[in-house]
């Protein structure tokens, strides 16, 4: 076979390998974004709970509501509210 001959199978295999590598890199990037988001949510949840624990005993229902929340905007709002609250009751009213 000369260098001018086209090897269709080789070309297809090369394209598949390139597609596989591209897909693998995309998957890793998405996993990193998701992991980072989950870590930020976890940090905010822990911050809210730590602040509220300083104010008193947190009802289990509220702990569950906080730890099940995944929306970073909501958690950020709650974290600010917890930081400003003078009591757990005040936090709950604003929640």
Secondary-structure map with pairings?
Blueprint lengths: L7 H48 L4 H9 L3 H13 L3 H7 L1
Helix pairs in contact: 1-3
The gist of it:
This protein is mostly helical and 95 residues long.
Describe this structure in words.
The chain has helices at 8-55, 60-68, 72-84, 88-94. With 95 residues, it is mostly helical. The longest helix is centred in the first third of the chain and has 48 residues, at 8-55. Helix 1 runs parallel beside helix 3.
Overall mean pLDDT stands at 85
Shape by Cα distribution: rod-shaped
- Taking Cα atoms only, what radius of gyration do you get, to the nearest Å? 25 Å
Q: Please identify the structural class as seen in this structure.
A: mainly alpha
**Could you give a short account of the major beta sheet?**
none
Low-confidence stretches: none
The CA-CA distance between the termini, in Å, is 74 Å
Discrete helix count:
4
Q: How big a fraction of the residues is strand?
A: under 5%
The residue fraction in helices comes out at over 70%
Secondary-structure element pattern, one letter each:
HHHH
Instruction: List how many beta strands DSSP finds.
Output: 0
